[in-house]
UniProtKB/TrEMBL annotation, chain A:
Organism of provenance: Ruminiclostridium papyrosolvens C7
Identification of the protein by name: Dehydrogenase
Keyword Oxidoreductase: yes
Domain Dehydrogenase E1 component: start-end pairs: 13-312
Gene3D superfamilies: 3.40.50.970
Stored CDD domains: TPP_E1_PDC_ADC_BCADC (cd02000)
Domain of life of the native organism: Bacteria
A Pfam family assignment: E1_dh
Keywords associated with the record: Oxidoreductase, Thiamine pyrophosphate
Swiss-Prot/TrEMBL cofactor(s): thiamine diphosphate
From TrEMBL, chain B:
Gene Ontology molecular-function annotations: oxidoreductase activity
Keywords attached to this entry: Oxidoreductase, Thiamine pyrophosphate
Gene3D superfamilies: 3.40.50.920, 3.40.50.970
Chain ranges of the Transketolase-like pyrimidine-binding domain: 26-201
Co-factor(s): thiamine diphosphate
Protein name (record): Acetoin dehydrogenase
Length: 321, 346
């Protein structure tokens, strides 16, 4: 991968991290009245996949969709305005944090129903095949979604019809507080996909270069009409399932487990990698952060100064014209 | 021969005159086929999927041979995975296509409610109007010959509770064709409710493409004593009842709602202003269903029009029995409607 793209990956990951940290910081003020699911710790997956997607390629996200939205190029002003449930938000204040979308860049929605995006993304991939274009769909889902029927039904159909869809499993081991091993036989979601005849790989989801390498190949394969690919990206969310809590301690996640994954921070590792290759130095690092900080400052200002949807607009958008 | 065919063959070729007197006389089934055929021919975005759409029967004849005419990319069989297939169709609709997904039994619809109600019906709203889902879900309800509790359900009442969905329930061949075309060109998810016992019903149907607006009912028979609001197959029973009532000097006005979401409220109130007596008859269950909703609308908006309490002629709140004697007791028919009308006139 050329140097510019390597830096781009870094910028995307840092943007996700910084936006999430700012949301975390502001959330206590109770002005963002929407359930949030932070992506901190999982930045490498969305960044590594989306760097290979074209603007017109489709993406479906999950309830934890902030990283996916940012990585695909979603407008951050509209995202933050949506978190503040303003009319200027990406869904005009109708969806909130769990339904980020931007159809002009292929993000056709995010769903709060676990596994709900899998059929929808399989459907846009079906449309690509029927319309004979080379648009690829990326569907993000968690390890919890592999419990759902939609996972199995969608994979079977995509394999049967050789659809151009890349299934991206963000396996962070937890569905809320339920561990994967308490919910699934075995610990290998990609083996299930292989059972449906889909090439599938379990990879380190904290290694953005690994994710990027596998995603690049998968997307190219999809574009050539060779059928779906599944990537099971192993990662960890630093924050709790919802809000700004940590879900650590008795009955929740063990501190040692958390500490281990924080030590495996995807950004820390990648930053060292770039520095060792002399691609990142202090001035560049500073300039990247200044740019991001400005974007964030502008976005929050834009959001808090935007109007809210009004009671007389209650019936808008229920039906399309 | 499939059991449903046996039962449908026993039905008479009931003729319903329509506002299209210049059309040919064809069956409800052939009208549905014609709507599918002409929609596929007219618009390359339209495609048809569902279990058995390309088998020799072709969903009781309504999709027969279409795969040969339009290719297997546009008319294809599917795995038995109702929920995800609904979502897949919805996803394709978001990408600009116009899918028609067919359930040969309405009972199977229940497996798909997550994708239909949680996703397709809410997408326009949740995306602030940015993404629409022009999806049609065709469902066929059956009745009789021991169909039993899982092959006979008429669940349209349940789905009225889902904002974002439209529901069509045509009873005549003219409406079957026109409303199916309307559903396909509509930019919203539409539940298209068919009844197997209507498939042999005959009526005038134009051979051209035409559409019928949602939320516009029609008076099928003019009367002055009692209003019978009928949905889907119960229109046939209502018209038969009106004929019998005439012999007893009771003049029944029969209203066919045609779509139940949205509902044409005006046509109900205009009729009630004349008659003051209301019978509502639906193929589904009584509690929380179509009839309950119409009764509530009347109670809420103009209860003073009523000279007598509203009567609902629907299925009792039990699963559909399989045995023939119990089936007969379970299903309301023209006799049930007549009895209720006579009581109302006392």
């Amino acid at each position: 991968m050329e140097n510019e793209r390597l830096i781009e990956l870094y910028k995307i990951m840092q943007t996700i991290r910084s936006v999430e940290r700012k949301i975390e910081e502001e959330y206590k003020n109770d002005e963002m009245k929407t359930p949030i699911h932070l992506s901190i710790g999982q930045e490498a997956i969305a960044a590594g996949v989306c760097i290979h997607l074209r603007k017109e390629d489709y993406l479906f996200g999950t309830h934890r969709s902030h990283a996916q939205y940012i990585a695909k190029g979603g407008d951050i002003k509209q995202m933050i305005a949506e978190l503040y449930l303003r009319k200027t938000g990406c869904t005009s204040g109708r969806g909130g944090s769990m339904h980020l979308m931007a159809p002009d860049i292929g993000i056709f929605g995010s769903t709060a129903i676990v596994g709900g995006g899998l059929p929808l993304g399989t459907g846009t991939a079906l449309a690509s095949r029927i319309q004979k274009n080379d648009r690829v769909t990326a569907v993000f889902f968690g390890d919890g979604a592999a419990d759902e029927g939609t996972f199995h039904e969608s994979l079977n159909f995509a394999s049967l019809k050789k659809l151009p869809v890349i299934y991206v499993c963000e396996n962070n081991f937890y569905a809320i507080n339920s561990r994967q091993k308490e919910r699934q036989t075995g610990d290998n979601i990609c083996k299930i996909a292989q059972g449906y005849g889909i090439p599938a790989y379990q990879i380190d989801g904290n290694d953005v270069l690994k994710v990027s390498e596998y995603a690049g190949n998968a997307i190219e394969k999809c574009r050539k009409g060779e059928g779906p690919v599944l990537l099971e990206c192993i990662s960890y969310r630093w924050k709790g399932h919802i809000g700004t809590v940590d879900d650590l301690g008795v009955g929740y996640r063990p501190q040692e487990e958390y500490d281990y994954w924080v030590s495996k921070c995807p950004i820390k590792w990648y930053k060292e990698y770039l520095k060792n290759r002399n691609l990142l130095n202090e001035p560049l690092e500073k300039s990247i952060h200044e740019d991001i900080d400005k974007v964030i400052k502008d976005a929050f200002e834009f959001a808090v100064n935007s109007p809210k949807p009004q009671p007389e607009e209650l019936l808008d958008f229920v039906y399309a014209d | 021969m499939p059991w449903t065919t046996i039962e449908v063959e026993k039905q008479d070729k009931f003729i319903i005159t329509d506002d299209s007197q210049n059309g040919r006389m064809i069956s409800y089934k052939d009208a549905l086929y014609e709507a599918m055929d002409q929609s596929l021919a007219r618009d390359s975005r339209v495609f048809v999927m569902g279990e058995g759409v390309d088998d020799p029967g072709g969903v009781f004849g309504t999709t027969k041979g279409l795969h040969e005419k339009y290719g297997r990319d546009r008319v294809f069989d599917t795995p038995i995975a109702e929920n995800s297939l609904t979502g897949i169709a919805a996803g394709a609709a978001m990408a600009g296509l116009r899918p028609v997904f067919v359930h040969s039994r309405m009972d199977f619809l229940l497996l798909s409610l997550d994708q239909l109600v949680n996703h397709a019906a809410k997408w326009s709203y949740m995306t602030g109007g940015k993404v629409s889902v022009p999806l049609v879900v065709r469902t066929v309800s059956a009745r009789g010959w021991g169909s039993g509790a899982q092959h006979s359900q008429c669940l349209q009442g349940m789905l009225m509770n889902a904002p974002g969905l439209k529901i069509a329930a045509p009873a005549t061949p003219y409406d079957a064709k026109g409303l199916l075309i309307s559903s396909i060109i509509d930019n919203n998810p539409v539940l298209f409710v068919e009844h197997r016992w209507l498939y042999k019903t005959m009526g005038n149907v134009r051979d051209t493409l035409y559409s019928i607006p949602f939320g516009k009912g029609v008076v099928r028979r003019v009367g002055k004593d009692v209003t019978i609001v009928a949905v889907s197959y119960m229109l046939v029973e209502a018209l038969k009842a009106a004929e019998k009532l005439q012999a007893q000097n009771i003049s029944a006005e029969v209203i066919d709602l045609r779509t139940i979401k949205p509902i044409d409220e005006d046509i109900v109130f205009e009729s009630l202003a004349k008659t003051g007596r209301l019978i509502i008859t639906d193929t589904g269950w009584k509690t929380g269903g179509v009839a309950a909703e119409i009764a509530a609308i009347v109670a809420e908006k103009d209860v003073n029009l009523l000279k007598k309490p509203v009567v609902r002629v629907c299925c009792p709140d039990i699963p559909t029995p399989a045995g023939d004697l119990q089936e007969k007791a379970f299903y309301p028919d023209s006799e049930t409607i007549c009895t209720k009308a006579i009581e109302l006139m006392k």
